[in-house]
Design a protein that fits this description.
The protein is α/β, with parallel strands linked by helices and 515 residues long. The protein contains 16 helices and 20 strands. Strands 2-1-3-4-11-10-9-6-7 form a 9-stranded mixed β-sheet, sandwiched between helices. Helix 1 links the parallel strand 1 and strand 2. The longest helix has 27 residues. The structure holds xanthosine-5'-monophosphate. Xanthosine-5'-monophosphate (XMP) binds next to loops. The site of xanthosine-5'-monophosphate has 14 residues, from loops.
Length: 515
């Protein structure tokens, strides 16, 4: 999103949260790379500049950042590494840390300096080793850490502020007040972000392709649902949603998709490809091979259906609508991601590869939004709350929740146990207290007693986690009474299951899905 508030990303894992917090305060901002920032500032004047944190040390970084500070009137906020660059430029001294400050720390406000809503002492999130040891010229000290280190500096007469801690992280209790102080009091900016702006910005994208034929690989999940509902208001009958039934869905997914067909204006066509998927997956045990097969089969089925549809209706699709969100966009921008050699843990399957293969242009109206903003937009568009607040469900579905080889019977076991878990979460009003909840079929047999007889049957694992973005996750603590009920119902009602276990592994080291 274009904005005249630039956030120069030095690679901190928290950079995106600065945009997030600015929006909560009613301001837009734009994350850009360091190279882009240095290039742009030669010709364009932003209204404010934020220099983010980053993993590097000023002792190894030889880049000349002076252009970020050459305009005396430009408001600049330096966070962590950003403050150290600032400290160096303004002739302070940055020292290598002997022992860094990581995690929660106490922040003390220097007497005489006041930020509205921010008390004299509060908790902040620190993550640094180097620190500013001698105040830069014309700066005053405004915050100190409990170790007596410089934690915040402000220029005496220029609109320049440096913070050693991370105000954008929730652990920094008064971070929002401090950011608001920068935006409102130091930079004197006017608010320019609201849910109305958000809707308008997204609608602009749809308006730009009005009159063209647009295709949507519809999953019924929050992102594709909100993207399609939004675009339908502009594109009407030119938007076609195709839903591929791979047979690896849960009963609740079928239920939702039928309701969406019935209750929304969306033109949703279900492609029954259950047999094809089962056939393609026959004999496959390896998780990566299964994921690849599901992804490949999806593309084959989808492409074939679209070509048939185009031929029979005499139309040609020009755009593919995708529910891509801002975190995905930023991830592909980040210098870490670009340069880093990250290993593939799992090949995620969505609709990757489709646009190039089918020569379609992309329509991504949600690409500036965070998940919770997408949800509130969904509500604003009049969608039902339980559609908009559904748990995430992976593209390969039950395919990665039956461990090892799939069969119609093993899929049934997961479908039935998942339905029980879903019903009980709703019944106990616990659905919203976990980010994701599902069952996994373990391909091991254990001995049990059913009635008076010996049972030798398979095991279902329950997986319930809380997370913000799926990158890390912690196990959801749920009441024993609820777990007991779920376990007892699964053993009694799902044929072939005698034992239920609860997975208590966080991510890392476990991933959320088992395969
Ligand atoms: P993992 O298992 O990688 O999962 O810890 C993180 C989150 O991503 C979901 N997931 C997927 N989502 N396509 C998707 O759209 C996939 O192939 C896929 N694999 C995992 C998972 O359910 C969790 O929310």
């Amino acid at each position: 999103m274009k904005s005249s508030v630039w956030i120069v990303d030095f690679g901190s894992q928290y950079t995106m949260l600065i945009t997030r917090k600015f929006r909560e305060l009613g301001f837009t901002s734009e994350i850009i790379t360091v190279e882009e920032g240095l290039q742009r500032i030669k010709t364009t004047k932003p209204k404010a500049l934020v220099l983010s944190g980053g993993p590097q040390s000023v002792f190894e970084d030889t880049t000349d950042y002076s252009s970020f500070f050459s305009d005396e009137n430009l408001p600049v906020l330096g966070i962590c590494y950003g403050m150290q660059i600032m400290g160096q430029f303004f002739q302070g001294k940055v020292e290598k840390g002997v022992q860094g400050e990581y995690g929660l720390a106490k922040l003390r406000t220097v007497p005489g300096f006041l930020i509205p809503g921010c008390p004299a002492e509060s908790d902040v999130w620190m993550s640094h080793s180097d620190h500013v040891s001698v105040l830069p010229k014309d700066f005053k000290l405004i915050f100190q850490s409990e170790n007596g280190l410089t934690a915040g500096i402000k220029h005496e007469y220029r609109p320049v502020l440096g913070l050693q801690f991370h105000p954008e992280v929730n652990h920094t209790v008064h971070g929002k007040e401090i950011l608001s102080f920068f935006l409102n009091n130091i930079a004197g900016l006017k608010q320019d972000w609201s849910s109305r702006t958000m809707l308008e910005t997204s609608l602009e994208e749809a308006r730009a392709v009005k009159g063209k034929k647009v295709l949507c690989a519809f999953s019924g999940g929050v992102d594709s649902l909100v993207a399609a509902t939004l675009c339908e208001t502009v594109l009407k009958d030119d938007l076609y949603c195709f839903f591929v039934d791979n047979g690896l869905l849960r009963p609740q997914d079928y239920h939702t998709i039928n309701l969406l067909q019935e209750k929304t204006n969306l033109n949703i066509e279900i492609i029954d490809a259950k047999e094809m998927f089962l056939k393609a997956l026959h004999g496959q045990k390896d998780p990566e091979q299964k994921r690849k097969t599901i992804g490949k089969t999806f593309i084959e089925v989808f492409e074939k259906k679209v070509h048939e549809f185009e031929a029979s209706h005499g139309i040609k699709f020009e755009y593919l609508l995708q529910g891509t969100l801002y975190p995905d966009v930023i991830e592909s921008l980040s210098p870490h991601q670009k340069g880093g050699k990250s290993v593939t843990i799992k090949s995620h399957h969505n609709v990757g590869g489709l646009p190039e293969r089918m020569h379609l242009k992309l329509l991504e109206p949600l690409r500036y939004l965070f998940k919770d903003e997408v949800r509130s937009m969904g509500m604003e568009l009049g969608l039902q709350r339980d559609w908009v607040y559904r748990h995430p469900f992976p593209g390969p579905g039950i395919g990665v929740r039956v461990l090892g080889e799939l069969s119609a019977d093993s899929i049934r076991k997961v479908q039935e146990s998942d339905q029980i878990l879903f019903e009980e979460l709703k019944e106990h009003k616990l659905y919203d207290s976990t980010w994701q909840a599902f069952t996994v079929l373990l391909p091991v047999k254990t001995v049990g007693v059913k009635g008076d007889g010996r049972a030798y049957e398979e095991v279902i694992a329950l997986r319930m986690v809380n997370s913000q973005d799926g990158m890390t996750a912690s196990v959801t603590e749920l009441p024993w009474s609820f777990l007991n009920k779920v376990s007892s119902r699964i053993c009694n009602e799902v044929k072939g299951i005698t034992r239920v276990v609860y997975d208590i592994t966080s991510k890392p080291p476990g991933t959320i899905e088992w395969e």
